[in-house]
Amino acid sequence: MNVGVLGLGYWGPNLIRNFLGHPEIEKVIGCDKKEDRRNFIKSRFPSVELTDNASELMEGDCDIIAIATPVNTHYDFAKDALEAGKHIWVEKPFTSNSAQAEELIDIAQKKNLKIFVDHTFIYTGAVRKIKELIDKGELGDIIYFDSVRINLGLFQNDVNVIWDLAPHDLSIMNYILPGKIAKSVDADGIANFYNKENIAHISVHFEDNCFAHFHVNWTSPVKIRKMIVGGTKKMLVYDDMENFEKIKVYDSGIEMKARENIHEALAQYRIGDMYSPKITQTEALNLAVNEFIESINEDRMPLTSGKDGLDVVRILEATDKSINKGKQIQIGSTVVIGE
Amino acid sequence: MNVGVLGLGYWGPNLIRNFLGHPEIEKVIGCDKKEDRRNFIKSRFPSVELTDNASELMEGDCDIIAIATPVNTHYDFAKDALEAGKHIWVEKPFTSNSAQAEELIDIAQKKNLKIFVDHTFIYTGAVRKIKELIDKGELGDIIYFDSVRINLGLFQNDVNVIWDLAPHDLSIMNYILPGKIAKSVDADGIANFYNKENIAHISVHFEDNCFAHFHVNWTSPVKIRKMIVGGTKKMLVYDDMENFEKIKVYDSGIEMKARENIHEALAQYRIGDMYSPKITQTEALNLAVNEFIESINEDRMPLTSGKDGLDVVRILEATDKSINKGKQIQIGSTVVIGE
Amino acid sequence: MNVGVLGLGYWGPNLIRNFLGHPEIEKVIGCDKKEDRRNFIKSRFPSVELTDNASELMEGDCDIIAIATPVNTHYDFAKDALEAGKHIWVEKPFTSNSAQAEELIDIAQKKNLKIFVDHTFIYTGAVRKIKELIDKGELGDIIYFDSVRINLGLFQNDVNVIWDLAPHDLSIMNYILPGKIAKSVDADGIANFYNKENIAHISVHFEDNCFAHFHVNWTSPVKIRKMIVGGTKKMLVYDDMENFEKIKVYDSGIEMKARENIHEALAQYRIGDMYSPKITQTEALNLAVNEFIESINEDRMPLTSGKDGLDVVRILEATDKSINKGKQIQIGSTVVIGE
Amino acid sequence: MNVGVLGLGYWGPNLIRNFLGHPEIEKVIGCDKKEDRRNFIKSRFPSVELTDNASELMEGDCDIIAIATPVNTHYDFAKDALEAGKHIWVEKPFTSNSAQAEELIDIAQKKNLKIFVDHTFIYTGAVRKIKELIDKGELGDIIYFDSVRINLGLFQNDVNVIWDLAPHDLSIMNYILPGKIAKSVDADGIANFYNKENIAHISVHFEDNCFAHFHVNWTSPVKIRKMIVGGTKKMLVYDDMENFEKIKVYDSGIEMKARENIHEALAQYRIGDMYSPKITQTEALNLAVNEFIESINEDRMPLTSGKDGLDVVRILEATDKSINKGKQIQIGSTVVIGE
Questions:
Q1: B212 forms bridges with which residues in the sheet?
Q2: What total of structural domains would you count in chain A?
Q3: A328 touches chain B (CB under 8 A)
Q4: Cβ–Cβ gap A223/D241 under 8 Å
């Protein structure tokens, strides 16, 4: 198979390196209007063909087009690529709105092409381990999901901090909590420097009383990437800044006790052992590329398909509305995660 | 002076120990209906007189009544004490609603009695150091305040997690950001075990575009007590779980750059040195008792007065409304913090 | 029983508080030549009788004399107390040299009196948990023990940093590795401020090829109290500065592989899960007092007896010799730990 | 210039990448007897010429030979390269003994060729910052240097853990403490798996009473890379496992107080602020390559020359003797670091 990589900025070189490393990829073509980015790729990956012309790339002999350009260009490039009969790989967030995502899914379905949305974290050893623990019932029912992803980050000027950072965490939530029905979204934020929020907080309420919260921030002096998953049996902390013990599972929790008098607690806590499972170290992007190519070969939906991209975009859209109106936005039962 | 301590539960013994240690306090009387609590105090502090009768305590020769009972009893006990001509010390949160707080402030003013609200954190070395740094302009203008206070905590059955934990953080915010005008409150939460929220998130918007957020949680497997204060010059992290370096000041921040093209950031970050100032170790409650007695002697408002208690209660009230209605609640300009 | 506490400095008040709390103790008498220390105890523990006369204390009606004075006075006070027919509690290190320790053990044996050496750490939840894990074979055979205890500490002027800090770690080593035979000691150190070492490193070689190392330092800017126990099956880290996860057990280790060629490793590592067992929170000194009184009642050796104190003193003596001579000191088979 | 890289194992590819990135390097030739290593380089760096014949490489048109083979082959390859008129880059430790190092230095001097010993850590932002702080007197006189470098590491079968890991720390010590005279070395260790030590402790005493200690361990369940540098004014901690705050400078220390009585300390501690300077992020190996090529162009000694390699080897040799004899080894005034 041949792959065209569109956009050679921050993430493009990683895509190239991983596609080059896959045994079924014969040729990689890179495309960017900027000469310095093409020269950078030339020096690092001499075997990659280069062009500054996206239309040419679309019309060429690529089987796959990987789109790593700014969000607001995803839809047009993706549509062109699908129309040209290519499978597509799209960076997160999938599209600028859910209508675009739905249309692309529709086109792909009709032409039997695959859409892969690069929710990279789904392919990390840590997130796969969390999924495994939840699936086998280790944590019990999940009652809450709390995520913090903050650092001193480069401002994007086409999207706010929610569209930039939250797709990582929303895609993880959707992956580990399939079948849950997101009911409403409440978002708050502040734009200190120009008209895009640089700090934001997002709450998601689920039909079964589960609750999720996301804190994203481009203006934090410290880098924190931490999630807490609260279950009825055990609770889990995933700290992505830890080098070694990224996941800790706490055999601790809340137990209900009979009410005695007004000063007594109704619920009391239990503290037990903690353990930290070993995490596989394989590069996530490598597994992602494998999954995409396998899904094409096996003619099946990839693990992170257009539908998963759409689920994330729907919540992102709802955060925009919620911030504008200052209230909770009902999402409706259409967002059954992962279905 | 003589002090009556009403309520000998978790916090009462600490009040007794600190009042006993003050040179101007001659006698301490403890009061609790529960015999085991009185016996506990007897064994630990043999010099303390004990009674099970609150009315007797009110009518006795105490100059000060310290109220360390459940929140919903604060107003009645406080009113009785003020009517009996006593200065009062009230645990946080001051009252169950703002009307009660206003009435107590009014009574105290008319009778020239002092109300001290025990916002203990204001008296810690760490918070006083933060105040000092902000006051001398070290951080520049404050653009955001982010607080996390979560652990596996004992459930209260008379209040939710916001009324239990957030007063600490709200009082710190009000103390270090005086004069700012809180405009609206948006709160979200979930009650997993009975009808009181055990997890909650609160956003506060200010008139000058400053933003504050509070995460409180009784059901976290890990204990986190961390605040970030973002300023235009520097940013500060206060981690109360650190034994030694509780405060770190980052000479890092955001700088606006001219816009070049659509892929370029409008704002870029700057990373500089960090420093951690030495913190005074004196027990906060000891300083709080000193401040209260000094304010009585000098016939002036204590640092944490009824007005400060009221400011916190107003925001707590707004969180209740916001959770009920699922939207932001305007507070109105009445809440000029600390004035 | 009545207890006399000799020396009301840093540790004396803790002894008083814990003896007072024991149900079988009727009376506690405190003794110190310094008036301000006696006054301090009077204000904190009004029920304690006080004297400035050690001889009087020895001749009085105490059943137990607890000695919390400088090390170089332990032997004289301990001998007087034993001669007067009292059971003794002695702070660590037991004595200034092994001859003194042997003599005291001899006297106690002849008069059927108990010697309790206050190796407090043996009674902490963490050390008891480590002992339990090793005893049940969880770690396999122990191949090394590495301890670091450093901070910015108050200099003692009667002993060097080894005699001040290492007894904690040596007593822990002896407790968790009973039956091992210490073969030689090699110590190194430096005295930067006056003629007592403020930094020291101690190596202990065992007959079975087990190896222990101790780093003690009064002049470290950071406080570290960390031990690693390496076993053939698992390895354990005990970090006493951690608030919650003090002990971590690593299912990691070294596995021998067949030699392939000169560039290949002979041994390779295996990385598995980690777990952190729950630790009991009871105050160590409380359990120590219980153990001492129980050993008297049951007429048996306490868990930390004169023999355990002697084992530690023998190694301390060897460190002095090793530093003086700049070489390893053979200890001889007399030091079979704990026997 | 052309460069031949001998040994394409773990470190070789990094050398190739950095030499390739230098503007003055025209050609890089890689040499390894193993076909799979040559193939690996071919796939990663297609422009690199490859050979399995070291003699051919030596006789070719390279200006520089970089030697990244096992330690016991360094001397032969280095001598051949110098004899063939090449400048040499040698991985640490420089040679297997000091006689070899002296001979190579001698040959290079006679032929006016440069020897660069790859003490990579010297080129890290962190170590250069420490050097800068010490040079400008920020820490005062250095009284001790304490280093811990432990992890679950691959066993080497040609050298013990000291020769494998300690060169990093010894070279850092020598770099930041130039002019100090190392007087004696005392080393202790244990070989648990075969006849090479896997755990070791090394003490170095200096003529001016400065003291250094090194703990190296291949069998630790946790990875620690931490140094403490104690000065008379300030103290510094360098934690290489920290992602962000690698260096912390403590304005804390020891102050001598007049002696009052036997219980009083002679020295007391002072605790002040801490700060963490910003560290430059440039890749160390990149700076190392620049320094080597610049030293050739300017016909001067590189920052890490054969003499620096020899200083490290002399201490390594002394550790072997000390472990064998169980005593301190005098080094003599020949080891004036860096001169």
A1: B145, B204
A2: 2
A3: yes
A4: no
